[in-house]
Design brief:
Largest sheet: 4 strands, antiparallel
Mean pLDDT: 78
Low-confidence stretches: 2-22
Strand content: 25-35%
Oligomer: single chain
Number of helices: 4
Helix content: 40-55%
Length: 117
């Protein structure tokens, strides 16, 4: 029984420590937007081929690239929710946003190729 209580206490302590050190996504998103260097954006008519992707913005902070993107939350694209990707290589952002490498692909497919995958 002592071993069980010790193990349980240790697991609880580890969980609380890890949880306390992990920033919430919304806080991270706000921090990057406020403190990062704006690198560019793809939105509007450029994303006409995607029914789910509304906008993608890149910010650089301390040599790391963060992608803030909005995904449609309804079938009509009137409402959306922001998300964030961390640690994207700057070359991937350039390939996605400029379209010089895969100009024949739409942004939705390039999003999967250079950002998600």
């Amino acid at each position: 029984m002592k071993n069980f209580l010790y193990s349980f206490s240790l697991l609880l302590l580890i969980n609380l420590t890890v949880t306390a050190q992990t920033p919430k996504c919304q806080e991270l998103l706000e921090f990057v937007v406020e403190n990062g260097s704006y690198e560019g954006e793809v939105s509007g008519l450029a994303l006409f081929d995607s029914s789910w992707l509304k906008s993608v913005k890149a910010y650089q902070y301390k040599n790391s690239v963060f992608m803030v993107y909005e995904i449609s939350t309804d079938n009509y694209g009137f409402s959306s929710k922001p998300y964030i990707f961390c640690g994207i290589p700057i070359r991937n952002w350039a390939n996605f946003s400029k379209g010089l490498v895969d100009f024949h692909l739409g942004y939705a497919k390039k999003f999967h190729k250079y950002i998600i995958d």
